[in-house]
Specification:
Elements: H1 9-25, H2 31-53, H3 57-88, H4 90-94
Length: about 100
């Protein structure tokens, strides 16, 4: 998450705790299955976020495309940043 403002440490702590839990699941389940579950959980939670901020179902219908656009763009940006970081550190990851 790059930006001009400093991301609070609490953000990274929460993200790290989700990753730690996912890593634990990888001990017993294939990584792709864990990834699918985590992606589904993010989609389900973000759908709840949108629903929680809407006054009614009609507002959700009106805002659905904008919400999809927003979350898709955020995910694309974060995925790209993390892929770039893994590319830069690829040798370290394989050691």
């Amino acid at each position: 998450m790059s930006s001009n403002t400093k991301t609070p440490d609490e953000f990274w702590d929460r993200a790290d705790s989700f990753i730690e839990l996912a890593n634990k699941y990888c001990d017993d389940v294939k990584i792709g299955q864990v990834s699918s579950s985590l992606l589904y959980a993010a989609a389900r939670f973000n759908s709840f976020v949108v629903a929680s901020s809407a006054k009614d179902a009609e507002e959700m219908i009106r805002e659905k495309d904008a919400a999809i656009e927003y979350f898709t763009e955020q995910y694309k940006k974060m995925l790209s940043e993390n892929l770039d970081e893994n590319i830069r550190n690829f040798k370290v990851l394989k050691e």
